[in-house]
Amino acid sequence: MIKIILVLAALIVVYILYHEIVKKFHFKCPNCGHSFKAKEYQLMFTVHASTKHYIKCPKCKKRAFMEQIRD
Ligand SMILES: [Zn+2]
Fold first, then answer.
1. In total, how many domains does the chain have?
2. CA of 37 to the centre of ligand 1 (A)
3. Ligand 1 mean position to 28 CA, how many Å?
4. What is the whole-number distance in angstroms between the Cα of residue 70 and the centre of ligand 1?
């Protein structure tokens, strides 16, 4: 039971961290130039290297490493 609570608490902390990124940053697709806001779950379950996230563009549906840009 304690383990489940710890896992849930960790998930909530991670969610809050990503929520801050989602609020303050947006992404620009290198393929079509479309600017968009990512969702928390998108960032939580994708590969990222420092400020670059491997996410899918909602416009052209292509995946790429995208730099997070301040709003
Ligand atoms: Zn695109």
1. 1
2. 12
3. 8
4. 18
Ligand 1 midpoint to CA 20 (Å):
23
Q: Which domain holds residue 33?
A: 2-70
The residues of the chain scoring below 50 in pLDDT are none
The alpha carbon of 26 and the centre of ligand 1 are apart by a number of angstroms equal to: 13
Amino acid (1-letter code) at residue 66: M
CA distance 56 to 1: 36
**pLDDT recorded at residue 48:** 86
CA angle (37, 53, 13) in 5-degree steps: 80
**Residue range 15-26, pLDDT digits in tens:** 999 999 999 999
